[in-house]
Amino acid sequence: xxxxxxxxxxxxxxxxxxxxxxxxxxxxxxxxxxxxxxxxxxxxxxxxxxxxxxxxxxxxxxxxxxxxxxxxxxxxxxxxxxxxxxxxxxxxxxxxxxxxxxxxxxxxxxxx
Length: 112
What we know:
Layout: E1 8-10, E2 16-19, H1 20-32, H2 35-41, H3 46-60, E3 65-68, E4 76-79, H4 81-109
Antiparallel strand pairs: 1-2, 3-4
GO molecular function, one term: DNA-binding transcription factor activity
Pfam families: HTH_1
Protein name: Molybdenum transporter
């Protein structure tokens, strides 16, 4: 038996703002240098991924990605300083929250 949980950040009005989906998408951009490749890894259409990033940027009031037009090798995308900070903060938050939940789960449901 184990615990499975999902975490996300919501606005004061309860609207989903940031969670594992956008986190994985940004991780993919960091890894591949491409929003298209990151979207493909998540089985998401590029247009949906692009609109998600733009909506997040608007709601958060920060720029997450810089886009560079392609030439011979194609375009690329990279995280901005703010995008990288968000990725690191959420990643650490996610890890610490999961560690705490695992500890709490063990305290209540430890098999004897």
